[in-house]
Amino acid sequence: MPGLQDKYKNLQDILYDMQSVLIGFSGGIDSTFLLKVAHDLLGDGALAATANSATLTPSELVEAKRIAKDIGAPHEVIWSDELACADFVKNPPERCYHCKKIRFSIFKKLQVERSLKWIADGTNADDEGDFRPGLRAAAEMGIRSPLKEANLTKSNIRELSRALSLPNWDKPSMACLASRVPYGEIITEQKLYQIARAEEYLKEIGFKEFRIRHHGNLARIEVPKNEMNRTLEKSDEIVKKLKAIGFHFVSLDLSGFKSGSMNQMLEIRNKKPDF
């Protein structure tokens, strides 16, 4: 693709100049691609670090470990206890800022221990257009974003990842479990556990893109519109399972799947009435 090779070469130059780097590694496509390119250039000078917490589903952690092993990169899993942070638990719109400050602080300690020159995350060029308070935390703490620096978009990363035969090149984006709880509602371990179990179940029965939004006793399911019929066909089974997990009511959002849909509530709050 015209220009894509130039972006890829620019990314390689950026990583080569960094000399050594700790990469915040979730196992998603962005951080996987970044880790692959960094490891190919820097060898063990590229360390993958995954923050394990109550906001991460067990299967995502297993997948992150597997992918890092397949790439051949050194990988550290570190416990990150966001639930010990009152500002995170209150779940304000700036929740991601508080989470990232905690995680980057943990990564900083590991960076010093391993004598690595930089910390990098998987932020790409498209992320600037969304509401992402975590970007402010990264800027404050000197975290590099090589994909964004190379002006690589999500579609660029998927195309290059497929060319590199990365197994998760078409993996849907997966935000942390706390993003399933509406802003202003307290985040608890029980809520995160319910969301994790419900989403693991949907994954087990073959769904790829989905969210379980937690509204107290109600679970709101988001799937793409072309998956709604299949969801309804399995509705009895799904309702039974989610009620066993602890939800009293189960609904299907007719608007369909939308990553970051909770941010729409911020737009509604800030919108002036028409009258």
Explain what you see.
The chain is an alpha/beta fold and 275 residues long. It has two domains: 4-163, HUPs (Rossmann fold), CATH 3.40.50; 177-265, Alpha-Beta Plaits (2-Layer Sandwich), CATH 3.30.70. The protein is built from twelve helices and seven strands. The chain has helices spanning 4-18, 29-42, 58-71, 86-89, 95-114, 134-140, 146-149, 154-163, 189-204, 228-233, 235-245, 264-270; strands spanning 21-24, 46-52, 75-79, 118-120, 211-215, 218-222, 249-252. A hairpin with a 2-residue loop joins strand 5 and strand 6. Helix 1 crosses helix 2, helix 5 packs parallel to helix 6 and helix 9 (189-204) packs antiparallel against helix 11. The N and C termini lie far apart (50 Å).
Précis, in short:
The protein has 275 residues and is an alpha/beta fold.
Secondary-structure map with pairings?
Blueprint: H1 4-18, E1 21-24, H2 29-42, E2 46-52, H3 58-71, E3 75-79, H4 86-89, H5 95-114, E4 118-120, H6 134-140, H7 146-149, H8 154-163, H9 189-204, E5 211-215, E6 218-222, H10 228-233, H11 235-245, E7 249-252, H12 264-270
Parallel strand pairs: 1-2, 1-4, 2-3, 6-7
Antiparallel strand pairs: 5-6
Helix pairs in contact: 1-2, 5-6, 9-11
Principal-axis shape: globular
For this structure, the CATH topology of the largest domain is Rossmann fold
Average pLDDT works out at 93
> How much helix, percentage-wise, in residues?
40-55%
Structural class, from helix and strand content? alpha/beta
The total of helices stands at 12
* Adjacency order of strands in the biggest sheet: 3-2-1-4
Q: How much of the residues is beta strand, in percent?
A: 5-15%
Rg for CA atoms: 19 Å
Unreliable stretches: none
Span between N and C termini?
50 Å
- How does CATH name the architecture of the largest domain? 3-Layer(aba) Sandwich
Total domain units: 2
Question: What is the name of the CATH class of the largest domain?
Answer: Alpha Beta
